[in-house]
Design a protein that fits this description.
With 229 residues, the chain is α/β, with parallel strands linked by helices. Helices cover 17% and strands 30% of the residues. The protein has one domain: 4-Layer Sandwich (Metallo-beta-lactamase, Chain A). It has five helices and 14 strands.
Length: 229
């Protein structure tokens, strides 16, 4: 499994020949402003949305226009919102795993909020638990640490967890370390930091704190990739 980080919480997963874009945030992202980001993508099969805040959904319509067959997967309310705009969607909620060509996907709990910029309710915020033949991945979405995370290892061992670490709106470094303990996850890709002034972190110190706890915190530069094996 190939994981490419763009900025904020936006990542791309490549699982065999399928491309999954997570929480697309480019056009209003200061990191990508005034660049033609759409040219960077040759194919997208799925878009996974954790919740309705603009910094996670603002470019769904742009990508759906470029890639006609893209399927947006999110909670029931977000799927309905984009479905009314003519976008193909698949709605789900906290519940069972659902099988897709890339693997099994489960919409998982998050402690946060969820509303579109126009005030439309975005349903329950969440994350995704992804089980594939290339390994299991947890995408937490925006969340605080919560004890329900301790249930996730019962579904299967994680090879990688994608966790927010910027603080204020989500977990900070210390809470993400606690979350990794609950998840029994040793390798963490940090997201949702440094995009704005109020979520800036000391990256060197953050890596050191995870290392002291026997964990690996991965902080990728824009458009850099790791492989989950």
């Amino acid at each position: 499994m190939k994981v490419t980080f763009f900025a904020h919480s936006t990542c791309m997963l490549k699982i065999h020949d399928k491309y999954l874009l997570i929480d697309p945030f480019f056009s209003e992202n200061p990191v990508f402003r005034n660049t033609n980001f759409l040219k960077k993508f040759q194919n997208i099969d799925y878009i996974l949305l954790t919740h309705a805040h603009y910094d996670h959904v603002c470019d769904v319509e742009l990508f759906s226009r470029k890639f006609d067959n893209v399927l947006v997967i999110s909670n029931y309310e977000i799927s309905n919102y984009f479905g009314k705009k003519g976008i193909k969607t698949y709605g789900m909620n906290y519940g069972s795993f659902i099988s897709f060509p890339f693997g099994k996907l489960k919409y998982i709990w998050a402690t946060h909020s969820s509303v579109f910029n126009d005030g439309t309710y975005g349903g329950n915020p969440g994350g995704f638990l992804l089980h594939t033949d290339e390994g299991n991945l947890y995408i937490s979405g925006d969340t605080s640490v919560m004890y329900e995370m301790s249930l996730i290892p019962y579904f299967g061992k994680l090879k990688l967890s994608i966790l927010p670490i910027g603080g204020r709106y989500t977990m900070d470094i210390e809470e993400a370390i606690l979350a990794s303990d609950l998840l029994k996850s040793e390798k963490i890709l940090g997201v949702h930091y440094d995009t704005f002034e109020d979520i800036r972190i000391n990256k060197k110190q953050a890596k050191k704190r995870f290392f002291e706890k026997g964990k690996e915190l991965i902080l990728l530069e824009k458009e850099k990739t790791i492989y989950v094996k």
